[in-house]
Amino acid sequence: MSELILHHYPQSPFAEKARLMLGLKGLSWHSVLIPPVMPKPDLTALTGGYRRTPVLQVGADIYCDTALIARRLEREKAVPALFPEGREAIAAALAQYGDQVLFHHSIAINFQPEAVAARFAELPEEVMKGFVRDRQAMFEKGKVSRPSAEEALAQWPVLMRRLETQLERDGEFLLGDEPSIADLAWYHPLWFMAANAVVSVLLDDYPMIRAWMARIADLGQGASAKMDAAEAIRIAHDATPEELPEHGFVSTKGLTLGQSVTISPVDYGCDPVAGSLVHEASEEVVIAREDERAGLVHVHFPRIGYRVDAA
């Protein structure tokens, strides 16, 4: 089995979700730091243009989006389970709500001018402006419905009160006594809030949430070792993608194996990735692509939240 390589940067909420997945499962992994803004030439050599954070690399297989990374890590180590047996649909649905609704409320609140200024207070102003420009470009072509800061602030107490009540009544985690993918998906937007003094006060009135956040943080992040991007690309170049199942091909558009396609997110960061369709199943779509630096790689995407089109 190839080693796990996570391409990420420390301040990314979704990267924090991935790091905690690795911690919950007690896995060892290699850490490749990537820029928080474009361009990201080393990352896109592996992904073909997908720019969102994080990305998981296993040899010459590249996994995009934490929704699919979670399923790959579940295959790596089944216990502790991210998707508890018998509650898989509930865990996935709660995770999707956290990753979308709660995350976008958190982003709207954190992108108020005073919150952005506080987050970048110790950095040159041009760094802050560059980050804002990058995120504006990232969201401008997508179809995601984001609340305004005013709407998010008005709705935030509703979301927090629901979570506070759940934790008061139903165990230490969202699905009871053990953490799951649902907890990690609800945690990372709040982790992002807690890291900014201007908006972290919005968590102060919820002692059960604060205690739950401490329990999640205590899961740790597994055992990581630094790796530079050049080494990760070399590993991909020298590896062969994992063999794909011969069964389970389910095309919703009448596409065929080997056909040239593009895959892109539908919500934000909608840069298309081109390649040859090599697998399509209930949870994922896989394309093969060649890169002069990374060689032949298989890039894996979740089916939900992405569109596949004939090239």
From TrEMBL:
Keywords: Transferase. Residues 110-242 form the GST C-terminal domain. CDD domains: GST_C_family (cd00299), GST_N_family (cd00570). SUPFAM superfamilies: GST C-terminal domain-like, Thioredoxin-like. Residues 2-81 form the GST N-terminal domain. One of its GO terms (molecular function) is transferase activity. This is Glutathione S-transferase. It comes from Halopseudomonas bauzanensis.
